[in-house]
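Suppose you are handed a protein chain with no further information: no name, no annotation, nothing but its sequence. What can you learn? This example shows the usual starting point.
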Amino acid sequence: MLRSVNLKTDMVRKGTHGRKVVRPMTPRYITIHSTQNYTAGAERHSEALKNGALRSPKTRYGNRIGYLIWHFTVDQRVAIQHMPTNEQGEHADFGGPGNRLSIGIEMCENRGNSRLATTERTARLTAVLMKKNGIPLRNVVPHYHWPRRGKHPPNKNCPHFLMDNGRPGKKWRAFLGRVNYYYQQLQ
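A reasonable first move is to predict its three-dimensional structure. Written in structure tokens, the prediction is:
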């Protein structure tokens, strides 16, 4: 299964940008995102993370380090890992449990990228991570799951193409069905 994910490792260097502060984590959730960036695939997102291009202002209820960082970026061809899964990212809900307890996966939406192939690759990667980390399917959540203090609305419509009217519904359940299908193949 991992071979079909086509996983590459391209880590942000420890001590720089999104990893300048390393906070340990035992993952209990997997959070699924969509980039809403229509110009960059997984490799360009990886470069942006390594070069510190994805800044986020540090605020009372905001980002703790001034940079965005997540664990994996997926497109139709590849999944790229940017940081170890035992470190906290800055991808979900600022200092809340979404960042403190979850592995973040971003799905690319760039022009020319197949959304279907990206979603399937993400479902496979999610199943592998569930198995490796003992994470149950009920703890695979959309970014929407984590309210963001100080934001309106607090629950982000993300991944927007897997939400129904801005909330988890039939499309999200179908995605979880694909994840569970791949997870059952690993058993």
